[in-house]
Write a structure and sequence with these properties.
This protein has 353 residues and is of the alpha/beta class. The protein folds into two domains: 252 residues, 3-Layer(aba) Sandwich (Rossmann fold); 64 residues. Helices cover 31% and strands 20% of the residues. The chain has a twelve-stranded mixed sheet, covered by helices on one side. Helix 3 packs across helix 5. The radius of gyration is 22 Å and the shape is elongated. It starts with a strand and ends in a 21-residue tail after the last strand. The relative contact order is 0.19. It catalyses: Couples ATP hydrolysis with the unwinding of duplex DNA by translocating in the 3'-5' direction; ATP + H2O = ADP + phosphate + H(+). It holds the Pfam family DUF87. It comes from Natronorubrum texcoconense.
């Protein structure tokens, strides 16, 4: 016997991924638990550092890469998911790593360009950047547009300097990542670990916009699943508007969002309240527990902070499934591909002779 998180139907009624098994109070494992991949979802994976949230996201990615009709994409700020692409005897998954990602400048609207560069739209330089972003489609054209204005020299210089900074990040390209490139059955890992917060957010914004637009315009057939590790990093930057769009309007076009974070208190309320599946590893910060408590459904008759319910060991989770209004204690299954998120240990270093 097994249960499918995220829907009332049976295993045979659409693609699913094996998540793990029920966990009894004595720690023993019970029936298997699967996740629904047939319909769109907003999932939130939380847990303190070292308790398996990135590992669990890797388990989801493996399942999505093997499921029919979906296009999984991971935005990887820590550089730990490229192991999905490693050869594994008998149990590997199709995966592609993009380690030098670039998005189109038009994936950011004028106000987002100002926010990205730290300029007020009401300032002279910010106003020039706003106008340039509105009138052009490449960074080169934006710089030329600024130079062609009759604005004060100081404002033009400031705007141009900020645009050159954005150009130096090397994440903007008129032929950047598009939905066709992301719409395959293989899981696409977008490695942004070498980027600072601002360009990292720009890439995430571009990817999220591309996936959402592609489904709205029927450009791709597969249903996109966007997976974000360290999601609080993106909800606090220029990527947030695109993520909010998926959370609040992604269901109709069939776009899913999976957010993993060790700081749910840093995720905006909409990121928690709009999630129809919550997977919680161990949490001990009261602020994080309170953040989840504010969005706790009425059918949940206990708190995640209850001592006898709180997961204790890595891999143990409590799952709140809003689709079926059920709560589950589970053990996440072992990954088939190597996990890249383990912390290094001094004891692993070979001593010099």
């Amino acid at each position: 016997m097994s249960f499918v998180i995220g829907r009332d139907d049976d295993l045979e009624d659409g693609p699913v991924g094996l998540l793990g098994a029920y966990r009894a109070r004595d720690g023993s494992e019970g029936a298997t638990l699967h996740l629904d991949f047939d319909g769109p979802h907003a999932m939130l994976i939380v847990g303190k550092r070292g308790y398996g949230k990135s590992y669990t996201m890797g388990v989801l990615a493996e399942g999505l890469a093997r499921a029919d009709g979906v296009a999984p994409v991971i935005v990887d700020p820590m550089g730990v998911f490229d192991t999905l692409a490693e050869s594994t005897p008998g149990a590997g998954v199709p995966a592609t790593v993009i380690d030098e990602p670039a998005v189109t400048p038009t994936s950011l609207d004028p106000s987002s360009w100002c926010a990205l560069l730290g300029l007020s739209p009401e300032s002279g330089a910010g106003g020039l950047v706003w106008q340039a972003a509105q009138a052009t489609s490449t960074l080169e054209e934006m710089e030329a547009h600024v130079e062609a204005t009759d604005a004060p020299v100081a404002d033009k210089r400031a705007a141009s300097n900020h645009l050159r900074l954005a150009d130096a990040w090397e994440v903007f390209d008129p032929h950047g990542i598009d939905a066709d490139e992301l719409g395959s059955s293989a899981v696409t890992i977008i490695d942004v670990s070498g980027l600072e917060s601002a360009p990292m957010n720009a890439v995430c914004r571009g990817v999220a916009e591309a996936l959402y637009r592609a489904r709205v315009t029927d450009t791709i057939d597969r249903l996109p699943w966007l997976l974000l590790d360290e999601a609080h990093t993106f909800f606090g930057g220029v990527a947030e508007p695109a993520l909010r769009t998926i959370l609040t309007r992604g269901r109709a076009p069939g776009v899913s969002l999976v957010s993993a974070t060790q700081r749910p208190s840093a995720v905006p309320e909409v990121g928690i309240s709009q999630s129809d599946v919550l997977i919680s590893h161990r949490l001990t910060s009261q602020a994080d527990l309170d953040a989840l408590q504010t969005a706790q459904p009425t059918y949940m008759n206990f708190s995640l902070s209850d001592a006898d319910r709180l997961p204790e060991a890595p891999g143990e989770v409590v799952i709140v499934d809003d689709a079926t209004e059920t709560i589950h204690s589970a053990q996440v299954r072992p990954r088939d591909t190597p996990h890249g998120g383990d912390s290094p240990r001094a004891s692993d270093v070979v001593a010099d002779d």
